[in-house]
Amino acid sequence: MMRMIFPFVVLVLGLWAWNLFAGPGAGSPWAVYDQSLLLSGLLSIALMSLTMMLALRPAWLERPLGGLDQIYRTHKWAGILAVVFAAAHWLIEMGDDVIESIFGKAGRLHDQDYSGFIDTMRDAAEEVGELAVYLLFAMLLITLWRKFPYKYWRYLHRGMPVLYLLLAFHAAWLTPLQWWQQPIGLLMAILLFGGSIASGLSLTGRVGRRRQVRGMVTAIKTPDRDVTEVTCHMGPAWPGHRAGQFAFVTFDRIEGAHPFTIASADRENGTVTFLIKSLGDFTRNLSQKISVGQTVNIEGPYGCFNFDRRNRKSHQIWIAGGIGITPFLAWLEALSSATDATVPEADLHYCTRNAGQDPMVDRLRALCDGFPGIHLEIHDSSKGQGLSAETLSTNGRSAAGAEVWFCGPAGLGEAIRNGLRAAPFRLTRFHKEAFQFR
């Protein structure tokens, strides 16, 4: 996340500093006020522009940032920071009376005189900007309020491109004219143009369209009460995938796309399988909402949760919780079907609520039987066999200097990661996907 946001903010601050002392009255209270107002507004619109461009799901950024999940984390936090700076911008704007009561009007820079049309547009930009900031605050609160239903939030979130265009209008008309002759103006133009194009693509439903393939549901199974296994045939248009990747799947246009990990290795025949757990309104009783033969749209593949990227000198620890076993099933299947693949030495830990009733346990054992170097451990919470960092730490041979790959509940992942950080040895890497796109 910070590998993009921090350099980006440094770049914006550097170009702002280029112009800092160029204006009259530098160092006076009113100059500080004006520059603070400009800087907060600049950081807000810059980060909001970055947020909109990252929403295009740029596949070329997956490798440097570590996957689409990390791109979305960057998108989320860039948006949150944009709202924070927008709040600071609004508060500074509201504080001019306080500055005047303390320091008086001496040294206050007068607004530049403009023609009637420009003056009218600047007034409109101020009003539009104030309205957009209030809407931005409301959107942030709704986003952070986890109890707000996702199905309603998703429709509200589709209005963000319109909100961005209002903020871009505000920023373009109220940016100081001298900025457009400086590097900061060039940066502003690039960001506003890129953010506006991204907004247009989003509003017209063109995000990810080039990576979308239409196929057909060929099989539906319910291996568990809360799990639906869906097999889709996408034909020759499917570009293939690496084990561990995910895709956005649309069974219903009104419901929209949902991200699901691909549970099968690439068979080079256009067939993909998903294991979908009941976690929301749409996925609950999914087998009754879809049917064999119906059309399905799949966008992808995305993600860098790929064991080919492992550190081959480190011992492997693979940890899965619940439906998080999906990418590891694809890994094992890919190893089974590949004749020239190097099978890694790995400890695979699967955490389940009830091993006796979990159909994935037998599937895992069957897949692991062919690989002597992969040691499977089942952690049955119904028998008090939960997995923790302490459990891993007791096995110094496997944990010290190991590379950990985790997929499962966020709480479990953070607990294990924090516990291993406190251990008296160091890990090579802890890799997990952040599937909370909201």
Automatic annotation (TrEMBL):
GO MF annotation list: 2 iron, 2 sulfur cluster binding; flavin adenine dinucleotide binding; metal ion binding; oxidoreductase activity
InterPro entries membership: FAD-bd_8, FAD-bd_FR_type, Fe3_Rdtase_TM_dom, FNR_nucleotide-bd, MRET, Riboflavin_synthase-like_b-brl
A Pfam short name: FAD_binding_8
UniProt keyword list: 2Fe-2S, FAD, Flavoprotein, Iron, Iron-sulfur, Membrane, Metal-binding, Oxidoreductase, Transmembrane, Transmembrane helix
CDD domains according to UniProt: FNR_like_3 (cd06198)
Domain annotation FAD-binding FR-type: ranges: 200-308
Membrane spanning residue stretches: 38-56, 77-92, 131-148, 160-180, 186-204
PROSITE patterns listed in its UniProt record: FAD_FR (PS51384)
UniProt subcellular location: Membrane
Co-factor requirement: FAD
Protein's UniProt keywords contain Iron: yes
Topology relative to the membrane: Multi-pass membrane protein
GO cellular component: membrane
Protein name: Ferric reductase
Organism: Marinobacter vinifirmus
